[in-house]
């Protein structure tokens, strides 16, 4: 299939982006690697003054026969040995390692080529890209990617759209830059396209129209919901109609699981006969349906390899990535060279198939953790229509929805204000020795001046509140104990 080029979205760039010049020094830095040039151009320290001569790392070896949670024995049978040298070129699968003399030097704002080529192949394998001029750019994770995105596209006083409950750091990063985050309602299948369309069709013409929809489609933080493929198609169409860019923030994409089955005897974990079976089981991504370069995808190694790698990547059209490169030349420059050398050295030895084996192993682990959490919620939470447990199909979070009006003192002590009940439950759970967090912490509630019509701000369930918990952070016995404490706190508070 022949695919076309991306469209030009430079009309969406911020004033800051339009004003930003390329650093002239960065335009010649590649000549540092050219043996025919005597490089007297920049303050690059000689690599002989880098104190590290080599890096040696062990990780488990695909196909991870002992599961992904076991430490490697050191034996070649189950251990992947990575050795990266300062000056010597070492082999990593079909490619080379990133020598430390280069990894620890300035340059390569896009990221090191050996890492980028792995990430590019992975992107094509998973998303089967639908336009020709796309590329990837290494970042220090999605927190950085989002902060850069806001700078690249938004001016102070702009408004962006996001799921009504969303990752609080993303809201605060926007608000700190003077950007409103206008909420779009979501349910267990993710953001609701009809509500998005109503908001945009009725956008107050006296205010600047949003250019960006920020979404966490898979294992949404905080609700745990995952957006259906049909909704993504509908949302992409609305984005085309209203000239919106879609920012998909997908750190949980590979934590997709089987649907929760309450009856243990009916539980059967999916076994994948091949890697392509696994790939076909994954939710459709926005980037995979994008023919125009309208989607910017933010991916991260944080949840699949380790948050401290501080390594992630952006997939977008080359035209858009140019703006990120120019910004990063002035901000992060590039992710840590150690991190890139270690991660690329490991992944290039594992190969694309080995990385998929790792992700399949991770899926298995999270399936089990999710099942233990949801079983415990059904066991320990009072059975009443006032509470709803939402078993997620992806990510790290479960939520429990609560009808605040079911509280015996809703109208009296709490003056019919759901947020006061939410605070009282929070205080109670902390006293009971468990931490689950109130949904209100994640609520986007920005508006424009003059405001948007009342219809655009209608709540799905005005007395509904929810709490978010995770099954990722503690071992299974602690998880059950925590959920039992949560159940006791709710019973006492509501006198169920
Ligand atoms: C939706 C979302 N985006 C981004 C992040 C942060 O990702 P990173 O570690 O890649 O910066 C998180 C982490 O909790 C998250 O939930």
Automatic annotation (TrEMBL):
Against CDD domains, the record matches this protein to: AAT_like
Q: Which GO terms describe its molecular function?
A: 2-aminoadipate transaminase activity; aromatic-amino-acid transaminase activity; pyridoxal phosphate binding
Enzymatic class: transferase
Q: What is its EC number?
A: 2.6.1.57
Q: Which domain of life is it from?
A: Eukaryota
Chief localisation class: cytoplasm
Would you tell me the protein name for this molecule?
aromatic-amino-acid transaminase
State the species of origin: Lachancea nothofagi CBS 11611
